[in-house]
Every structure is written in C-alpha cells, then in structure tokens.
Amino acid sequence: MNKLNEILSIIDSYVGGSQWFVFLLLGTGLFFTIYLKFPQFRYLKYSLRIVRGKFDKAGDIGDTSHFQALTTALSGTVGTGNIAGVALAIHLGGPAALFWMLVTAAVGMTTKFVEVTLSHKYREQAEDGSISGGPMYYMKNRLKLRWLAVIFAVATVLSSFGTGSLPQINSISNSMFETFGINHMLTGGILAVLLGFVIIGGIKRIAQVTSRLVPIMALIYFVGAMAVILYNYENIIPSLVAIFGDVFTGTAAVGGFLGGSIAFAFNRGVNRGLFSNEAGQGSAPIAHAAARAHEPVSEGLVALLEPFIDTIIICSLTGLVLLSSGVWSEKYENKFQEADLLFLNVTYSETNAEEVENLHQYLIGNTNIEAFTGSFIVAEGVIQNQPTILHSRSVAEDVKVWFNNQPFSGQIDVKNGKLVSRSGLNLSGKSLLHSAPLTTIAFTKSWFGNYGKYIVAVGLLLFAFSTAISWSYYGDRAITYLFGSSKVIYYHIVYVIGFFIASFTDTTIIWTLSGITIALMTIPNLFGILALSKEMKNEVKLFWKEYADRYPGEKVPKD
Predict the structure, then answer these.
(1) How far is CA 146 from the centre of its chain?
(2) pLDDT tens per residue, range 373-403
(3) Backbone angles phi, psi at 427, to 5 degrees
(4) Three-state SS across 228-253?
(5) Rounded to whole angstroms, how far apart are CA atoms 298 and 54?
(6) Could you tell me the pTM of the whole model?
(7) pLDDT per residue over 207-259, tens digit each?
(8) What's the CA gap between 525 and 281, in Å, rounded?
(9) Potential cystine with 348: which of 270, 313, 388, 391 (Cβ 3.0-4.6 Å)?
(10) CA distances (Å), 421 to each of 10, 335, 413, 414, in order?
C-alpha cells in the first residue's frame, strides 16, 4: 500500500501537483478574465436573474431547468473538498493556502463561464433521446480533434472514480465510524444501494434529488459553521490576518504545526481549490449541457455562480472554522495511518527552534533527513529507545503500539522510515489531524459542544453523497460518447461497486489519485477553451445583443 502511494505521489508531483499545472490553470483563468473584461464581476447580477428563469424561451431544448443544472453541478463540486479538502490545504500549507483557494475561485468563475458556454453550444442528442454534452463534444465537433475528445472522455471516466466516487464515500465512512461507530462496510453498502437507485433514473431523477438536497445541506452547514466562528469571535480578526498576512511570508511554526512555505501554500491552495470548485476541469459543463436554453452564454452565466458559492462562501466558512477554533495547529489523540507515518533516524525536540526549523525544511522539501531502517523492541505498547516519529507532518507524542486492539509486546520492523505492515498491528498517539477528522473536531468548538461533530457528519454525508451522484452522470455521459448509451449500464454497475469498495480503502492513496485524475481532465479542457477564445468572445457579444433586443429598457454590459 505504501509503495503504491509513493508511485502515485511521484506521478502527481509531475502532473497535478507540479508548478506548471498550477500556472496553466491560473493563467487560463486570468487570460479569460482580462480578455472578457472581468465577467465574474460585471455579469454576476445577470447570472442571478437567469437562474430564476428570466431569459427562458418557449421551446428551449434540454432535460433540466437552469436551477436544476446549477444544483446538479454544485452537488458535484460541494463535497469533501469543502470539508476535508480545506482542512488538508491548511494542514499542508498553513492559513495562506485558503487565500490561494479564494484566488483560484475568483479566476475560476471566468473559466467555468467559458467552458460551460462552449460545451452547451456543441452538445448533442444521444441515441436514447437524452441530451449529451461536455468538452468532448466541442473538441470533436468544433476543433475536429477526436483523439483529444477521447482522452478527455477516458479521463472523465477515471476521474468519476478518483474524484467523484472514491474520496467521497471514503470520507463519509470515516466520518460515520468516528462519529457514530458505524462500520465502514455497512455505511458503504447502504449508500451504494441508494446511489444505484438514484443514478439509474438518469439526469432527470438526479436533478430532482440534487435540487432539493443542495439547499438543505448548504443551510445545515452554514448554521453549524457560523456557530463555531461566532463562539470563537475573538479569533476572527487574527484568523483573517493569518490568511492574508502569511501569503508572502509563509506560516511560522506554531503549536504542532512545523511551518509552511509560500510555495507550498500556493501550490496546495490552488490544487485544493480546483478539487473543490473544479473550474477548468470540464466536469460541470457536462451537467450544464443538459439545461434548457437556446443561448449557450445564458447557461455559462449560471455557471459563474458555482465557484462563488462552492469556494468563496462554503470553503471560506470551513477555513474560518478551522482557524478561529485553533484546531489546525493542535495535536489530538488518533489512530495513525501508515501512509502518514515516518520513523526518523535521530531525535528532534520541538522546544529547540533550530531542530524545528530543520524539520520544517524537510517537510517543504528543501533538505533531507535520514530515515530509520531496522527494528524496535516494544514492551506493553511502548517503543524502546524511540527516535522522533512524524505523523501527519508533525512530531508524534505518546506513541503506543497495538496488536488486535491490545498493547503489543515484541518486535516491529521499519524500512526506509516506513513501518513494515503486519495484519492487526497499528500505532496511535497525539499528532496533527487533517482532512475530515480535523474539521470534525473544529465543529465541536462552539455552543453545540460535542454535538457539533454531528453537523459535520451529516454535512459530509449529504455533500459527499450528492457529489457521487453528480459524478456518476459525468462518467455516464463520457461512456455515452465513447461507446453509446447501451453501454452505460455496465459503467453504473462498476461505479456502484467501486463506491462500496472505497468505503474501507486508505484515504491518503485516494487523495493522491484524485490529484492525478483532475489533471488528466483539466489539461485537454484548458487547451480546448484557449483554442476557442475568439469564438467565445463572439458568443458573448451575440448574447448581449439578443438580451438588449428582448429587454430594450435595461442596461447591458458593453464589451
């Protein structure tokens, strides 16, 4: 398992986790922001009108309304990225990572506007009569690059597992187990059955479910988050200062957090920002292509709202919850995951500033520290002559070794800093937390007390399950493009089975895999929309001309 994660991490470092990918993503968004004269700010009020049906026309073709398309796409983006992803970004890069998530969302609003417009324009009717759209269709029908369309469609199928299915149920099952003690497989089994029931009804049933689910889950999460932030009101200003103040300095070591660099905050913030709102990935256009509309730009304007709601509102709430509560830099008792565990060959003290700096430099990749290889004697769960052990990028404390839930006595083996796996053997102790467990603890720091964890559990359940529903549709349309409607049933079967299996799979590997699949979709999509930039600008002009003709007394933006 550790070896597989290492291989995936190497691949991710060259693709989704690399600087060139980050600059490609932000660069595309910035280009269209300037080229189209900041549409995310100038057009926002029109987006709200259109989503309410103002621009609808009798006879518009599609399977869903504007609002249903928006909630379906939102249910695909509002998921573990909003709860676990924000926590992971801050865990890796410090508070400044949240700033870069917000920047990603701001430029991502334009990217989403462009990719949805072009995908809606070149959508098709599938052989079963349903609407099928997405970047693969403008790649095929406009760019005449069938090979690129195939790459995107295959990547979409892979990403439906790496982004939409696997990490969602993994976070749900972990949360259900930690909060209610429900077995991972039981959670996976029940939700897999429900998932199968929903997706077999196609986009119309999916849209009906998400249009009801998204507003409810957003309200529940908002109330819980505000309870934490207001309870810790004295930390609101310091939290905001940390978010914006650490952008150009990096985050100094504080508590159990060993410090974060500018580059790490930037890279992880942008990476997690994309995972959250998926701007540029080309996934949301698949849902929006099904909307009833005669003018593609109108649906693109609806899509402007997605990154704003998903990241600027919901992710900001999560970030302020984590920072104002202080849990992001505190150590908590937890069961260690082997993939996050590293035995060092020497002992470091957190009271020694020089040694803390050495660990910080190691964690951001500037220096190497010798890892331990050999054996340790363990007596009643305590490692004899224990060196420094890192877990979740922090110095682990009060480390205990367990075998079948009993204190272990005997010998454990370590190779290149990694524990040699043995069935029934695990370690626990105090360390930093990340992902959903960190957000769960943060929500207990309010008037709700320990009951706050139920808000996260319910929120995560609704967010992540709705994401899995939407991503099944994205994969569905990709399979339709590749093989036709008749083969979709086989994809649905594999999707539901994979969803179940992921409920008891190591979370670290799934997060790493998701970074790769994101990049495999994003790169072809960004190439495609950049190639059609002039056409996009012309579409915008035609839209505002029609808008002015239909509503002569109303001012329209001048381009």
Answers:
(1) 29
(2) 999 999 999 999 898 999 998 999 999 999 9
(3) -120, 155
(4) HHHHCHHHHHHHHHHHHHCCCCCECC
(5) 10
(6) 0.85
(7) 888 888 888 888 888 999 999 999 999 999 999 999 998 888 888 888 888 88
(8) 7
(9) 388
(10) 21, 15, 8, 9
